[in-house]
Amino acid sequence: MKDEFGEEFPEHAREVFEFRFSLNAETDRGCALMVASFLDSKLEQLLTAKFVNDQKIATEHLSQSGPLGTFSARIDAAYLLGLIGENVRRDLHLIRRIRNEFGHSHLPLEFSDDRIRNRCNELFHFHLIEPAHDPRKMFVKTTISILAVLNSDLERIKHVAPAKDLFLTKEELKANREKLKQLVSLAMESETATQFIQKMANFFKEEDEPTE
Q1: pLDDT of 48-75, one tens digit each?
Q2: Which of 6, 22, 56, 134 falls 20 to 30 Å from 62 in CA-CA distance?
Q3: pLDDT digits over 158-172, tens only?
């Protein structure tokens, strides 16, 4: 695929094309399961890229036993964090439900079956591209559209900064103790309250001045 697309072809776009071509050989069931799994992993990448840069905590929450370990939870978390819009969220949940239809049925099932076709007809992103009567085509093209959105987000997203703790760090406490000692020394050296206030004013003025 590298020679076919060329060196300048963006890596994320290459990945989408390769994934799209890989679906051609899949049964309808295989196609639905692969699409849901791939989108699920993309959401995991998106959430990890947005979270505070703490890999251990992120991994725990995104693990299968964690609170964000399911496709459904990741879809809603991405939406609540402002990473995806309402229509992407809606289509992702439709894709998840289609996956469940295939995954939970022991009977032969195809995209042309009424309950699958009806869900595909609800997909928002495909109808932005072109109308069609082939539900598998709707499903796959919707997937490619959503992958384009998620990959675009991954290109620009940054970790949020961790919130500052309410209590001071050890270094800040040590620095404040030193300041307090200096203020006590100023009080001991001052003969009058006016002199102490003046020394305090000079002290804080020096503190505020930027260092070279």
Answers
A1: 999 999 999 999 999 999 999 999 999 9
A2: 22
A3: 999 988 776 667 787
For the chain, residues classed under CATH 1.20.120.330 are 2-156
Q: Which residue in 75, 88, 99 sits closest to 26, CA to CA?
A: 99
Model confidence at 107, pLDDT cuts 50, 70, 90, reads confident
Does residue 29 contact residue 102 with C-beta atoms inside 8 Å? Answer: yes
Integer Cα distance of 200 and 212 in angstroms = 22
Please state, in angstroms and rounded to a whole number, the distance separating the CA atoms of residues 77 and 68. 8
- Options 1.20.81.30, 1.20.1060.10, 1.20.120.330, 3.40.50.1000; CATH for 2-156 is 1.20.120.330
Rounded Cα distance between 7 and 190, Å, is 74
Task: Pull the structure tokens for residue 199.
Answer: 């020394």
Whole-number Å distance between alpha carbons of 119 and 83: 24
For residues 117 and 135, the answer to whether their CB atoms sit within 8 Å is yes
Tens digit of each residue's pLDDT (9 = 90 or more) over 78-105: 999 999 999 999 999 999 999 999 999 8
CA 137 to chain centre: 28
* Residues 78 and 46 sit within 8 Å (Cβ to Cβ): yes
